[in-house]
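Question (not urgent): is this output format expected?
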Amino acid sequence: MKIQRLFIYPVKSLRPVEVSAAEITNEGLRFDRQYVLVKPPTEQQPLAEHITIKWRFDLGLFHTAIDKSWSKLTVTHSQAQERKTLVVPLTPSPLSLLDAKVFEVSIFGTKAPGIDMGKEAADFFTHHLNMPTRLLYIGGNGQREIPGAVYLPSTTRALSISVNNKLSPQKIRFADAAPLLITSTASEEDARRRLPPSARGEDVIVRFRPNVHVDVAAEVDPYDEDSWNMLTIRSRVDRAQQVSVRCLFRTVRCLSLNADLAKGGMISTNRQLYGLLAKDRRTNELFPHKPVFGQYACAGPSGAVLRVGDEVEVTERVNGSGSSMSPAVQEALAVEEYAAR
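Got this back:
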């Protein structure tokens, strides 16, 4: 098995940048989901509300690109006749943000400060989304706690999860629930076969929004990743480098699977992957009404680089059909429950 594709999402819910290599940090891949679009806070709603492709399918019309120097991020609206592009720093200088407004953003119950990127960015997205919108960059220490509510609905506390006992606990930026999302080519092909023949040429995996897409060839069946617990990724460039990946949770999917990314609306009924998968892929007992595709995960050490073509080995699996929740998440939830007493 090997890494087939790598994706970074510089702005949460917009289209990704596909890359040949990506650096691991304690918050996921570098540059991933460090920006977020929000509705400005009001007196009635003091928190900035993040705007998500789950409800705004037209976010799929915004394409992102990173320049060769990795200094500029360009956002392009694929159907715009005017105000077609916006360019912002990929990593804004702290000095340039000294006087910027800061808003608090809550996603699934854990909060992070977001630094406002100014009027030009706000006007660009407000114009295309036809609603007041601000572009925020992750502030503070550049990270957010992992929300326990994503893994267990009755939990409101944050989770402390590490790849192993030698590495620091993981955090996230503006991702929903975990530093990484991993998918496989076997599962991709199963999803593709559910589409009508005329639609099977679609690059279907982009609707699932993974970070790491693993080519499993003919080695395993679709959804084999349901049982993955630990992976080792060996660099094709530096054989001494090994990355440990801990899978956390069978990823329950949302209505973003039904987005027509080319048109910015809901896709035709016979291509709605949410319903097509829900027929037999409701395999997470904690969310029994939602289909599952992929695994939330975390990886380390920080600073290691993943590359397309790197070898992937499953080194540990959960026992039998097991829980949808990895032992690491179960332990983290137990610790938080004990602390709350």
